[in-house]
């Protein structure tokens, strides 16, 4: 036994431990132990005052820490992937771990693993914030200490406001520091390596700071990025609302795809890809400060979905064909699967999906899901659904389906349907991709594809060394009024609305597709990608009082299939 200083319940304490481990503990500051009310993780756009001052200074301090310090930004970001190194004494499962970090992708553990990861940073930010608060003058010190105790990590709510927040883009930011008002380098705009990164990092070699949507000189270029970002957010927002309101998906399907929706993980991946630069590469993405802002929002999305679907079984026991730094393939998925390398106590036990399941056990909440105000899960679900409908009211009455009998008692054969595109795409591990589907031929300029009038759907897939075959990537391809009213001469506008019988022929005549691949810097059009495509439909069986829609099983159409192999 040795004595180790560990961060526990918002404070550093000395404890007997079996190894030199960092305990990722729930935060207790600001938690009402009587009612269960907890401080909110707030939208970055609404974070202000002392909490904003402390958050920015805490992130800046973590980024400036020596890169050999395991609680530095460099080491914390490295947990996710590069530089593929041991963290907190959790050794690799083999001597040559390859090019993957501890992060889990493409399976049910994706959401709980990243919840523990975000909680780790929240622990460290909370500690720094409290230390910084104690440096303020006596007149404001207590205000800042209270703010530090209530501070939780903010999120980037892209689905609320698609414009990129200025606090993510600006090179400098004004704050009120312990020494008074000042301007500092914005720690959310980029992370600066010190020293610059090593030659093993492919085209990142010698670049001293992270970048997004870069030009050829590795400089962030938000001008060319803005339209792509807004159109991607609109696409993902529609997919997200469909995922929330789908009453048929199991938890694994909602989390990672496989039902009629693309799933939370795939929605998250599209935002990674469109940001470009470091964010497009799963193994390097955590160095970009936008990563944690994005993943707090992913965690929020999971919390909202869970509140809407309280009876869905969490984590189905099975295996996932992926490997990580600490786990060989296939990875076992169950409630007690260890979430390496996150220790939950000083004895060396690891967090599990079970230990991070409920935010009430972790010391934070989101304004969208205030569970302590309701006596049972059904009441909470009704409240959260009401909030979602208000936020997505522009989509709530829109049916991305064919027109048919809307009687809920009708058979599946006569019910209206939603139509999906199911594709399998194989990529090299150093590539990301965006798959576009059009009604008719796409515009000649690829830069306009995301905003094309005849765009049916698209999905972005980030680089991921863990998964080289992206199987069963599903996209909902809406047959809606947009096509019927399109003035694009390259698309044949169908009669509005289309009936089930007319849709297959329309898709056979008009559906076209393209694949763009990227290494994070440059995009090219894949002339012969390894891809297979098939169209299917799902009957809408019923809609309950809350608006949750039940779908039948997916029926694939063999005559609506295409393939291209190298």
Automatic annotation (TrEMBL):
Keywords: Copper, Melanin biosynthesis, Metal-binding, Monooxygenase, Oxidoreductase, Signal. It comes from the Eukaryota. Its EC number is 1.14.18.1. Residues 105-122, 288-299 form the Tyrosinase copper-binding domain. Residues 1-19 form the signal peptide. Gene3D superfamilies: Di-copper center containing domain from catechol oxidase. The keyword Signal applies. Its cofactor is Cu(2+). InterPro entries: Di-copper_centre_dom_sf, Tyrosinase/Hemocyanin, Tyrosinase_C, Tyrosinase_Cu-bd. It catalyses: L-tyrosine + O2 = L-dopaquinone + H2O; 2 L-dopa + O2 = 2 L-dopaquinone + 2 H2O. GO terms for biological process: melanin biosynthetic process. GO terms for molecular function: metal ion binding; tyrosinase activity. Pfam families: Tyrosinase, Tyrosinase_C. Belongs to the tyrosinase family. PANTHER family: SHKT DOMAIN-CONTAINING PROTEIN, TYROSINASE FAMILY MEMBER. This is tyrosinase. It comes from Microthyrium microscopicum. The lineage of its organism: Eukaryota, Fungi, Dikarya, Ascomycota, Pezizomycotina.
């Amino acid at each position: 036994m040795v004595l180790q200083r560990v961060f526990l319940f918002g404070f550093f304490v000395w404890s007997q431990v079996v190894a030199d481990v960092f305990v990722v503990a729930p935060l207790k500051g600001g938690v009402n132990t009587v009612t269960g009310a907890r401080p909110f993780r707030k939208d970055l756009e609404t974070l202000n005052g002392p909490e904003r001052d402390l958050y920015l200074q805490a992130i800046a301090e973590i980024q400036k820490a020596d890169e050999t310090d395991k609680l530095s930004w460099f080491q914390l970001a490295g947990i996710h992937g590069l530089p593929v190194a041991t963290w907190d004494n959790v050794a690799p499962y083999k001597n040559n771990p390859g090019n993957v970090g501890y992060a889990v992708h493409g399976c049910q553990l994706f959401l709980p693993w990243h919840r523990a990861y975000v909680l780790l940073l929240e622990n460290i930010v909370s500690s720094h914030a409290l230390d910084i608060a104690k440096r303020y003058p006596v007149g404001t010190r207590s205000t800042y200490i209270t703010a530090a105790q209530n501070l939780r990590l903010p999120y980037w709510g892209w689905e609320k406001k698609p414009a990129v927040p200025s606090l993510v883009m600006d090179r400098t930011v004004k704050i009120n520091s312990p020494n008074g008002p000042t301007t500092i380098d914005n720690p959310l705009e980029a992370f600066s390596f010190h020293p610059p990164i090593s030659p093993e990092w492919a085209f990142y070699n010698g670049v001293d700071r992270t970048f997004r949507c870069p030009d050829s000189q590795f400089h962030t270029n938000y001008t060319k990025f803005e339209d792509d970002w807004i159109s991607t957010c609109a696409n993902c927002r529609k997919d997200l609302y469909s995922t929330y309101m789908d009453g048929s998906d199991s938890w694994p399907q909602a989390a990672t795809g496989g039902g009629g929706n693309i799933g939370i993980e795939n929605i998250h991946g599209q935002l990674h890809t469109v940001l470009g630069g470091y964010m497009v590469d799963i193994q390097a993405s955590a160095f970009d400060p936008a990563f944690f802002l994005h993943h707090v929002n992913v965690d929020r999305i999971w919390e909202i979905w869970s509140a809407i679907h309280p009876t869905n079984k969490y984590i189905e026991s099975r295996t996932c064909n992926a490997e990580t730094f600490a786990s060989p393939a296939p990875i076992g998925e169950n409630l007690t699967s260890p979430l390496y390398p996150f220790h939950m106590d000083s004895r060396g036990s690891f967090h599990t999906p079970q230990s991070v399941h409920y935010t009430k056990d972790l010391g934070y909440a989101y304004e969208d899901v205030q569970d302590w105000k309701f006596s049972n899960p059904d009441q909470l679900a009704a409240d959260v659904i009401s909030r979602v409908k208000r936020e997505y009211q522009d989509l709530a009455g829109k049916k991305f389906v064919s027109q048919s009998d809307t009687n809920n008692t009708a058979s599946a054969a006569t019910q209206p349907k939603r139509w999906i595109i199911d594709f399998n795409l194989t990529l090299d591990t150093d590539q990301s991709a965006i798959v576009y589907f059009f009604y008719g031929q796409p515009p000649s300029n690829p830069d306009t594809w995301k905003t094309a009038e005849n765009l049916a759907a698209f999905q972005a897939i980030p680089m991921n060394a863990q998964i080289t075959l992206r199987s069963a990537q599903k996209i909902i391809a809406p047959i809606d009024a947009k096509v019927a009213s399109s003035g694009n001469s390259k698309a044949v506008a169908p009669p509005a609305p289309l009936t089930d019988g007319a849709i297959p022929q329309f898709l056979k005549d008009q559906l076209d597709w393209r694949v763009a691949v990227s290494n994070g810097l440059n995009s090219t059009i894949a002339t012969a990608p390894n891809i297979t495509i098939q169209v299917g439909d799902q009957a809408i069986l019923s809609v309950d009082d809350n608006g949750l829609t039940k779908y039948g099983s997916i029926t694939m159409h063999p005559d609506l299939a295409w393939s291209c192999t190298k």
